[in-house]
Amino acid sequence: MISNEQADYLIHLKKKIFQNDNVLENLAINQEFPLNLRYELVSEDDDEFTFLWVITQSAKNALKISLHYQENESNVGLLRVDYYGTHQNPFAAKENLPDKFRPYIGKFFSYDECHVHYHVEGYKPLAWAVPIADSEMDTTEITETNVNQQMISAIMDFAKIIKIETKITINPLLL
Predict the structure, then answer these.
(1) pLDDT tens across 35-59, in order?
(2) In what order do the strands lie in the sheet with 115-118?
(3) Predicted confidence (pLDDT) per residue in 73-86, tens digit
(4) In the predicted model, what is the mean pLDDT of residues 92-108?
(5) Any idea where the domains of the chain sit in the sequence?
(6) Residues forming beta bridges with residue 164, ordered by sequence position
(7) What is the pLDDT of residue 175?
(8) CA distances from 19 to 27, 40, 128, 145 (A)
(9) Taking the C-alpha atoms of 30, 31, 32 and 34 in order, what is their torsion angle to the nearest 10 degrees?
(10) Rounded CA separation 70/7 (Å)
(11) Fewest C-beta in 10 Å: which of 14, 15, 51, 152?
(12) What DSSP state is assigned to residue 171?
């Protein structure tokens, strides 16, 4: 079981992408459609943990994007951003529920309400979400008119939030 404090520690721990038995200082991503990527992450500050970062885009709807981050050994989700997905928060608040979630007890996020899921101790993984506007994400929506650039921005925002130090370059999808 990961506590709320441990989850916060693991999110804010500096980390780099680990690929082909190497810690990467730089990574170039070629944007494709649909984008489906998985990266293992490691921390030079705390080698007890490894992490998984998953980027998925729906093949049916280019706007439906999920950015997922978890502790790899326990498979416990720590943070996920959903653009254009639905979600229902729990209806019951346990005493350890952080205050930022209390206004959203029982909230149903409709398809057009982009939101961010968090690990909360005592609940199933990533059961709690807040509107994306109430999170650290700068990219609060992805629109049909600017899907490629906004997707790049969302990926970069998420990488910054989970403290990835590998320098990431994303080559845009050529239309």
Answers:
(1) 999 999 999 999 999 999 999 999 9
(2) 22-23, 16-19, 36-42, 50-57, 65-71, 76-83, 115-118, 128-131
(3) 889 999 999 999 99
(4) 95
(5) 4-170
(6) 15
(7) 56
(8) 10, 7, 31, 34
(9) 140
(10) 10
(11) 14
(12) E
